[in-house]
Amino acid sequence: MKMLNLADLVARGGGPVLATAVPGYHIERGGITRYANGERSHPEGHHVHIVPEMFVILQGTGVIEVDGSPTPFQAGDVFVIDAGEDHHLVCQGDLPLISAWMHLQPAGD
């Protein structure tokens, strides 16, 4: 896992905003999720991808669990989860957690 913040997301020449933060990748697809206090993403258990995934925390606080290790976050934090890392977001605050998620693809694909 790589932890960044919004200031690290800078577009260059019309390219993706993550070009400097995650060189060699572009956004393939994504969405926005909402979790209430105490809710955990992917409650079914183990959750991995074959491509990296990026999360941008837009609102709220909580922890991101990567391979069982929790890291606190707040609005403005950005996480890049490597392919194969088990990951979950947990909302731990009065405000709902709102996060944008993006699956990344190598720029040549």
Q: How does the SSE layout of this entry go?
A:
Layout: E1 2-5, E2 25-35, E3 53-59, E4 61-66, E5 69-74, E6 77-81, E7 87-91, E8 97-106
Antiparallel strand pairs: 1-6, 2-8, 3-6, 3-8, 4-5, 4-7
Could you please describe the fold and organization of this structure?
This protein is mainly beta. It has no helices and 8 strands. The chain has one domain (2-106): Sandwich (Jelly Rolls), CATH 2.60.120. The protein has strands at 2-5, 25-35, 53-59, 61-66, 69-74, 77-81, 87-91, 97-106. The strands form 2 sheets. Strands 1-6-3-8-2 form a 5-stranded antiparallel sheet, with no helix packed on it. A 3-stranded antiparallel sheet has the order 5-4-7, with no helix packed on it. A hairpin with a 2-residue loop joins β4 (61-66) and β5. It is globular, with a radius of gyration of 13 Å.
